[in-house]
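Q: Please design a sequence for this.
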């Protein structure tokens, strides 16, 4: 699929999407965390609600009305800290579009942003062109 075609399936996430964000996040095989593990790390329903109310910083991708992926950016840190796509939709370009949405958002404020792929392993920088 062409990226411009996929963009029509991506929208800003809102508080009504919180359950879907948890479902997508817990569905991945790489960097998998259970809902309990997420809550133990402070990623709770209330925390996500506060983030989504404060700033439009998350995007969700849907196919036939079903949420299949999301990305989230941290404007204070200039970082993309979440990018997840359900395994059955991997490799179709949704992750690239979700990454682009978060990058575009952050580059409104920063010339260099961070992509955290796993806090324990690596953090990469992305420069604005």
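A: Design:
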């Amino acid at each position: 699929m062409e990226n411009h075609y996929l963009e029509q399936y991506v929208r800003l996430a809102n508080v009504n999407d919180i359950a879907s964000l948890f479902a997508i996040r817990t569905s991945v095989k790489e960097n998998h965390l259970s809902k309990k593990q997420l809550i133990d790390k402070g990623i709770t329903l209330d925390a996500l609600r506060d983030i989504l109310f404060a700033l439009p910083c998350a995007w969700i991708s849907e196919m036939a009305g079903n949420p299949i992926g999301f990305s989230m950016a941290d404007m204070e840190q200039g970082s993309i800290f979440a990018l997840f796509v359900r395994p059955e939709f991997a490799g179709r370009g949704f992750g690239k579009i979700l990454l682009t949405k978060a990058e575009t958002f952050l580059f409104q404020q920063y010339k260099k942003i961070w992509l955290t792929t796993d806090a324990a392993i690596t953090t990469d920088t992305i420069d604005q062109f």
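Q: Thanks. Anything notable?
A: The first strand starts at residue 10 and ends at 12. The radius of gyration is 14 Å.
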